[in-house]
Specification:
Distance between the termini: 58 Å
Strand content: 15-25%
Number of helices: 2
Number of strands: 5
Mean pLDDT: 76
Helix content: 10-25%
Largest sheet: 5 strands, antiparallel
Low-confidence stretches: 17-25
Oligomer: single chain
Length: 130
């Protein structure tokens, strides 16, 4: 049986009701995990905030695995992800380490510049005004 502790936020931290969870136990000890850095999460969460304000997205999930880190975006909490933003460092020199994958598994955009890759999702935010 695995018992997980939830870290308590510090007094002066800017934690808005999010719980901090321990690392996922899929990775054996001594093996590295791929994760998003703070500088990578800033543009992703900025886009997420704009899409939530527009009423398009409602929930997200982050997975840090051995070969890939995934930021999944959901329209509702109990369904398949609408989009997945993946980071695969092994593809850095080939196709690009960042990719946006659609609900059906198609890769919508891939590259080494995260902001450029996220532009494919920002186009969804632009609408014609009547």
């Amino acid at each position: 049986m695995i018992v997980a502790e939830v870290a308590k936020p510090r007094k002066n931290s800017k934690c808005f009701g999010m719980t901090i969870q321990p690392p996922i136990p899929f990775v054996a000890k001594g093996q590295e995990q791929v994760a998003f850095h703070r500088t990578e999460l800033a543009p992703i969460l900025g886009l997420y905030g704009r899409m939530v304000a527009a009423g398009e997205w409602r929930d997200y999930g982050i997975s840090n695995l051995r070969e890939v880190a995934v930021f999944s975006v959901f329209r509702r909490t109990a369904e398949h992800p609408l989009y997945r933003i993946e980071k695969r460092p092994k593809l850095r020199l080939k196709q690009g380490q960042y990719a946006v994958v659609g609900m059906d598994g198609r890769i919508l955009k891939r590259g080494n510049d995260l902001r450029q890759v996220l532009r494919v999702l920002e186009r969804k935010l632009i609408r014609a005004v009547d």
